[in-house]
């Protein structure tokens, strides 16, 4: 669970730094740092996609996963629901409301789901380390507005990712290399999309693609992979 521990630690550390900087920092420094994280996310995403593509036996699965997942996600419209929660508390300085926003940003995402699975099955913490960097920067920015209470989100994230890690470990015999490679590609696509969003190139509704993660498991259940 090293990746989850690191992810948790960066949120707590980011909250401490942000609280110290609660008088604010110049916008240009925030902007440049965030852009840097966008480039990092894109690089890691491309790396994961490349790694997964060289290992999978059936590329049709991840293609169908994205297509079917997009349709299901758009129907559920999770992105809009989460956006409404964030906007509900926008501009508020209430620490509890800051925690709600933090949970939404840190826990509801592909990296917080696929990362612990990869860590448990393959011992690969790359996705969780990428998530840790992004969450750390976000934690600094949130805690400037909401204070040290954002550190509590680190505990929530630890419990969330820890549960996924333990669940994946318990089902390790059922998770085949092909299934994991399909998830690696999907995770890489989501990381790449996150980087694109951070840089403001376009606005991809990543949350609406999350159902794509269910398709490889469905294919495994029916013996397709």
TrEMBL record:
Is Transmembrane helix found in the keyword set?
yes
Q: Which residues cross the membrane?
A: 6-22, 34-53, 59-78, 99-117, 137-159, 179-200, 206-224
Tell me if Transmembrane is a UniProt keyword of this record: yes
Cite the Pfam families for this sequence. DUF554
Highest taxon, organism lineage: Bacteria
Q: Which UniProt keywords apply?
A: Membrane, Transmembrane, Transmembrane helix
Name of the protein this chain belongs to: DUF554 family protein
**Lineage, opening ranks:** Bacteria, Fusobacteriati, Fusobacteriota, Fusobacteriia, Fusobacteriales
């Amino acid at each position: 669970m090293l990746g989850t521990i690191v992810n948790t630690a960066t949120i707590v550390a980011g909250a401490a730094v942000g609280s110290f900087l609660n008088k604010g920092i110049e916008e240009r420094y925030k902007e440049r740092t965030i852009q840097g994280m966008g480039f990092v996310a894109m690089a890691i995403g491309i790396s994961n996609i490349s790694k997964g593509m060289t290992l999978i036996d059936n590329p049709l699965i991840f293609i169908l996963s994205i297509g079917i997942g997009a349709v299901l996600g758009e129907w559920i419209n999770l992105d809009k629901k989460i956006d409404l929660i964030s906007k509900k508390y926008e501009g508020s300085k209430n620490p509890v409301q800051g925690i709600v926003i933090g949970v939404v940003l840190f826990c509801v995402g592909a990296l917080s789901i696929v990362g612990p699975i990869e860590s448990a099955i393959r011992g690969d913490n790359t996705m969780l380390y990428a998530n840790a960097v992004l969450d750390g920067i976000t934690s600094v920015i949130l805690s400037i507005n909401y204070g040290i209470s954002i550190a509590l989100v680190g505990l929530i994230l630890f419990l969330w990712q820890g549960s996924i890690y333990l669940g994946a470990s318990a089902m390790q015999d059922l998770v085949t290399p092909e299934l994991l490679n399909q998830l690696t590609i999907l995770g890489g696509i989501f990381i790449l999309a996150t980087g694109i969003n951070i840089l403001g190139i376009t606005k991809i509704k990543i949350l609406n693609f999350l159902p794509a993660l269910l398709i490889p498991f469905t294919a495994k259940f029916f013996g397709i992979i």
